Amino acid sequence: MNKPSAPQSPYGILGEAGIKELAAAFYDVMNERTEAATIRAMHEKNTDVIKQKLYEYLSGWMGGPPLFSDKYGSVCLTSAHKPYSIGPDERDQWLACMDIALERIDASESLQAMLKTPMYNIAEAVRNQDI
User: Which one of 16, 23, 34, 63 counts the least CB within 10 Å of its CB?
Assistant: First the structure.
């Protein structure tokens, strides 16, 4: 009798290359979409450093090696985002960019569904404004 396989983590599905591709696609989308202008303005002109940090964070968050915490220590997203005014609009801009980035890397519908609520929870956790 075949034993059912354990559910895979997002990292197990995407792998290192897929996580890197997702981080790059996210910033490409953010750069391209006028609807994301508010969150784009929160970043440096050159996004190479933050793109690498997003990859490192997502690696551990999605079940892979904890690259970000190994490099920078414990992860406190609220502290890192405190200098920025992040309300529902900015949260939704971030989520829209991530949704499009997942589509761009051909993430399966099941992976997109798996990430929908956790991604929302992250985006909501860094929100520090009501409007």
Answer: 34
